[in-house]
Structures are given as C-alpha cells and as structure tokens.
Task: inverse folding
C-alpha cells in the first residue's frame, strides 16, 4: 500500500479512536496484513480496521485518478467517488450504521488528502546539494 494511504489510514484511525479505542492498533494490523497480501473479513474491530485501510487505499487511487483531470480534486468529489466504488464491492460495513459509515469515509478521505498535501509539500522542499552548508 502506498505510504500516503497508510498515513491517511493511521490518522483516520486516531480520529475515530474516541468511539473505538482499539482501532489504531487494528489498523496497524490490517496494514500489515495488506502489505503481506493477506486481507479478508475478521472480527468486528479488525473488519472495521480493514475497512479504514480499504477506504484509504481507494481514496488515494481516486485522488490520483482525479488529479489527471484537475490539479486539486475537492474532498467532496473524492468522497463521492469512494462511496460509489465502495458500494460496488462486496465488502460490507462491519456492523456500522449508514451515518457511521459516512463518518469513516469522510474522516479517512480527509486524512488521506491531508497526508497527500504533506507529501506534496515535502516534495516541493529544495534538497540540499553536496557541498552546501545547512
């Protein structure tokens, strides 16, 4: 999984942890499973973590696709695309109400876009050349 999507998933888990305290740890586990090529449905907390990771990866892909058409895709547009694409998968929301699922999508997309913004700012920083003094 791309580093930006991973950072977005971690940040979203931190924000959602108020109501689900173990979520950051479960997201870390889900990220590890994704990297290792092992994904799937587990118990509720891990299924939620897998959903956050899936939404983060999907948001990053959608964002990059939209960037080919517009330099700065709006969060609402990315969220709408994620919602549509997520509804086309067979991955159910793990015991979440529609409102809770919307919250997961909103927060995760927001954090992925925040991580993308940080990555872009870091890429724009001039690098120190050999022989320069800091």
Result:
């Amino acid at each position: 999984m791309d580093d930006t999507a991973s950072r977005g998933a971690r940040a979203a888990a931190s924000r959602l942890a108020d109501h689900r305290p173990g979520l950051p740890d479960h997201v870390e586990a889900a990220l590890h499973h994704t990297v290792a090529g092992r994904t799937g449905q587990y118990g509720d907390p891990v299924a939620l973590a897998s959903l956050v990771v899936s939404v983060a990866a999907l948001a990053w892909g959608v964002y990059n696709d939209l960037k080919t058409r517009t330099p700065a895709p709006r969060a609402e547009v990315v969220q709408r695309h994620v919602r549509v694409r997520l509804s086309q998968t067979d991955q159910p929301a793990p015991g979440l109400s529609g409102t809770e699922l919307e919250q997961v999508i909103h927060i995760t997309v927001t954090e992925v876009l925040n991580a993308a913004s940080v990555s872009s700012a870091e890429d724009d920083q001039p690098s120190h050349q050999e022989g320069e003094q800091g």
Remarks:
- Residues 35-43 have pLDDT under 50 and may be disordered.
- Residues 125 and 131 are 18 Å apart (CA to CA).
- The chain is about 70% helix and 0% strand.
- Residues 3-112 form one domain.
